[in-house]
Amino acid sequence: MPGSLEPLDVGVQIPYYFRCPISLELMRDPVTVSTGQTYDRTSIESWVATGNTTCPVTRAPLTAFTLIPNHTLRRLIQEWCVANRSFGVERIPTPKQPADPAMVRTLLSQASSVSIPKHSRLSALRRLRGLARDSEKNRSVISAHNAREVLLAIVFSNTDSDSCELNHEALAVLAMFPLSESECAFVYSDPERITYLVSLLFHSSIEVRVNSAALIEIVLAGTRSPEIRAQISNGDEIFEGIVGILNCPLAYPRALKVGIKALFALCLGKQHRHKAVAAGAVEALMDRLPDFEKCDAERALATVELLCRIQSGCAAFAAHALTVPLLVKIILKISDRATEYAAGALLSLCSAEEQCQREAVAAGVLTQLLLLVQSDCTERAKRKAQMLLKLLRDSWPDDSIANSDDFACSDVVPF
Fold it and tell me: What is the DSSP letter of 38?
């Protein structure tokens, strides 16, 4: 079903008992509550989450919030969808059942027990991993049972070759969860734990490398202290490992997503940005920029702007043949934030290198900037564009100056 019933205006009638009494939409995952009434799982969960303790239809108290899947009704709905396919009705998929809290407790107990065979512990971790992958709700159920504490203990309990498979499997599950500040402190309080994670960035398995990078990024994001974040980033190998992940084959897209998140987190501290440049971050960013999805492209451009603020980074980007043309092309193409970061990076480059000014003008930056200052983009982006217009004034073609005075002479507020 395409989300709502409005598109089905060709005369098909949906049986009222297929509709959820709360949302009045076709039920995708019908469940029965303690009063015997059936609702769509999402609707009744939202009803209870907002503080309601009665059955929406009968108004009787919900004595126990146990949702029993109504498989018979769900199959009838699926059959009705197939029968009405010619009217544009899509068959609803069979929903995966949410994780049972009792089962989650058992799996965590098995995973953490050193008295049971290794293969049983691995099996428990793999089942937890599968549940966590299935849905956000499953991750909430798992997290509610102190799973992060259990998984952290397994990841760092014993890092010898005999236990590495357990460590890596626990790491794969842990990388799906945010960590509290105290849990982040557990990781960075022992330098050997950070050293271990950095060593995994060079593991033969891409999956292990990416999971390690994901956990490093989670710890950096969950740590408030700039000094601690700088301490975690203090090492050439961590940048080399993260840049290596960015250069992974495109057949493993999660590497690109995790790699740019980790690189951005590392580059937030100015004192170690030169290590990112030395590790090849500039080449990796420029080569992979067209491959990023929207959110990741914004983060990549923010990282470019950060690295352009240091001398070595600015020089490296200026020397890369794709930098200026790509940044000019991106303006107004991806999002307001992407435009702002691209304009900021161009401003830094053109302020430092006259060659970049000529390249920007040749790439058509003048038209892009004039469109930008007239757009609904952010004020910061417009200020950067105005500053860049003034900077490039001497490089403009003569026939463009007369048409651009209003923009070039605008009052500019430093960003």
Answer: E
Q: How far is CA 336 from CA 264, 310, 372, 374, in A?
A: 19, 24, 10, 13
Six-digit token string for 161: 């070759």
As a whole number of angstroms, the distance between CA 193 and CA 209 comes to 15
SS3 state at 409 = coil
Buried b (16+ CB within 10 A) or exposed e, 134-149: eeeebbebbeebebbe
* 274-291 pLDDT per residue, tens: 999 999 999 999 999 988
Q: What is the pLDDT of residues 17-54, one digit of tens each?
A: 999 999 999 999 999 999 999 999 999 989 998 889 99
Average pLDDT, stretch 59-67?
A: 87
Cα separation, 29 vs 355, whole angstroms: 61
| Domain residue ranges of the chain, discontinuous segments joined by + | 16-87, 97-177
Give the DSSP per-residue string, 350-387. Answer: HHH-HHHHHHHHHTTHHHHHHHHHTSS--HHHHHHHHH
Give the pLDDT of residue 162: 63
Q: CATH topology for 16-87?
A: Herpes Virus-1 (3.30.40)
The amino acid present at 105, given as its one-letter code, is: R
Of 355, 350, 354, nearest to 369 by C-alpha is 350
3-state class (DSSP) for residue 68: strand
Q: Are 173 and 132 in contact (CB under 8 A)?
A: yes
Long-range residue pairs from 60-68, CB within 8 A, at least 24 positions apart, any chain: 60/35, 62/33, 62/34, 62/35, 63/34, 64/34, 65/33, 65/34, 66/33, 66/34, 67/31, 67/32, 67/33, 67/41, 68/31, 68/32, 68/33
Q: Which of 13, 31, 12, 11 lies closest to 21, judged by CA?
A: 31
| Residues 229, 135: Cα–Cα separation, whole Å | 31
| 123: Cβ contacts below 8 Å, ≥ 6 apart | 110
Distance CA 234, CA 118 (A): 35
Q: Is the pLDDT at 415 greater than 90, yes or no?
A: no
**CB within 8 Å of 330: residues ≥ 6 apart:** 289, 297, 301, 338, 339, 342
What is the Cα–Cα distance from 219 to 269, expressed in whole angstroms?
14
**Residue 406 binned pLDDT confidence (cut-offs 50, 70, 90):** very low
Tens digit of each residue's pLDDT (9 = 90 or more) over 251-261: 788 999 999 99
How far apart CA 336 and CA 6 sit, in angstroms, is 32
